[in-house]
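Task: sequence in, structure out. Protein: Large ribosomal subunit protein bL25.
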Amino acid sequence: MLEGIVRDSMTKQATKTLRRDGYLIANIYGKGLENISAAFKRNEFIKFMRTKETLAFDVKVGDNTLKVVVQEYQKCPLTSDLLHVDLMVAQPGVRASYKVPVYTTGTPKGLKNKGLLMINHKRVPVKCTYENLPQNFTLEVSQLDTGDNILIRNIEFPEGVDCYLDPRVPVVGVIKAK
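Result:
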């Protein structure tokens, strides 16, 4: 479980001080819940995110233990350091928007024909309850030749899970190298 602290002061100077001390600024929110401003040790947060096995994970902030899902990161454009993270509370029975990661398996046969594998969407936005939330979408790409794509409409979504992207949007494809 990831542990953090509750931020008391929201001033720019307090935020700079926390970042200088190695903390990552976070905002935790949920439908019908009061927002929590928190901070996590940056290195602990990154290690935890690399080893987690599920999309939703537990965090302890102050006296509260919450099950959260990462909604968005903000990185420094110059150094690529993690600056801020938005965490949404995964509430049972509440329909919400989540971003589910996409993984590929196999080697496309288009790579032998001087093609490049392009992953257009690393995370697919879906709307569902927490109970129906898939952990990831695994796509088999070994049959893709140059110019072939896997579209949103080709992905089988579990019951109760809706994707609000256009069905014609490509997720993974093989393009011709120049």
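DSSP finds two helices and 13 strands in the chain.
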